[in-house]
Amino acid sequence: MCNEEEHAGHAMARRGLLLTGAAAAATLGTVSFASAAPHDGDKETEVVRGTLPPGSPDYVYLPVEVPRGVREIHVSYVYEKPAVPAGTAGNALDIGIFDERGTGLGGEGFRGWSGGARKEFFIRADEATPGYIPGPVRAGTWNIALGPYTVAPQGLAYEVTVTLTYGPTPERQRPVYPPERAKGRGRAWYRGDCHIHSWYSDGRRTPAEIAALARAAGLDFINSSEHNTHAAHAHWAKEAGDDLLVLLGEEVTTRNGHVVAIGTDPGTFVDWRYRARDNRFGHYAREIRRAGGLVVPAHPHATCIGCNWKFGFGEADAVEVWNGPYTPDDEVSLADWDSALGLAARTGKRWIPAMGSSDAHRDPDPIGTPQTVVLADDLTREAILDGIRAGRSYVAESKDVSLSFSATGGRRGGHAGIGERLRVDADDPVTLRLEVTGAPGCTVRFVTDQGVLHSAALPGSGSGTVEWRTTAQYSGHVRAEVRHAPVMPPLPGALAALTNPVFLGR
Asked: Hey, do 176-399 and 400-506 end up sharing a CATH topology, with the first three levels equal?
């Protein structure tokens, strides 16, 4: 059965819309199927056509009345991509689905999201398309979620096809999650990449491929961070091992910026359907922390539509200042973070540690470029998150680069490492010491609340030690950078590594 409703009211310009939820949203007319129970294996199909005008709400819901006896729901969609003038956004339409439990913000109805990465998906009790959550297809009103990311001036003409397959419900498999502990080396420096995408969102690699690349990159831990879905959580257990801790999370991809949830409880879903103006981010940041995770704004100055961070940093546990191969927007993120450090040093308020991750999606994106190196008591979820939260970490472009950064001084010969405070009097001499390996052709820079106060070239081998003396009165905090040679002087070269700061003073 095919019901083409292009002229029956599904075009948004032709009927009223029901506003729902916190973000701008709308609900279209309901798609219904036959009420008579077909035979096992029978299929029914409905096709819906419509057009979304420019300025459409962020999310448009297409209700589907699912009768009893359905074993599988299959959805596919297409949309037109007309030519647009230079500088004008064309059409881009995301898709996902909510089950009979509803579309309420933060509710239990979420069953999957693929954004613009897939043109079709299915759900049944024992299996689902990557990005979607297996489970029974229960009777009731399901909602296909359409997300018009950008709409051309001509409008966004779409076609959605829904197919129901009838029959007994397959047995659902109990999800198995990776352990929260790997073998570890006790208190040590552990390398990780906390922003990676697999084929469970818009990546192209399998978890097995990612795990192999992570091991090759010298990583001790990674974090599952698919866009707007936790569907990958149940597919990482067999890739973890004594040598690789797999944390579970999500990249919460809103229209006003992206935030990586790191190390949440297995099966945690974090909603993304809000903007800064909706005043909902604080609630979901607290939800991430209640689930045991960290809140980390990602690529805060990225230039892609919807990527630039608009929520402020009051709820952040860390911030991703280096995303993938080093680019100018990372330089802006670094400068923004550096300014915030100066404010924290002056006021004594909480400071936010820096991180770096690859955001790798597909070949040739390298896993572990960059990587965050964390001083943790052991290779466990709790210890790694504690180390990141405390800022006991530095960022390196690869496993080849290693740093040791410390401050010593004061009347009692005090010592402080990365993320710590050296408690000295204002005029006590303090010696900063950075040991570097694996950075040939690079220059070390010591950066304070005044800016770069000392720099020194490393030997040709890329390994060496740089020392500099200051006082707490002169430098409220000091952090270290290792930079490649500049390509366009006087602009600095790309980072090879950077540390979180050591704070000086009482």
From this structure: no
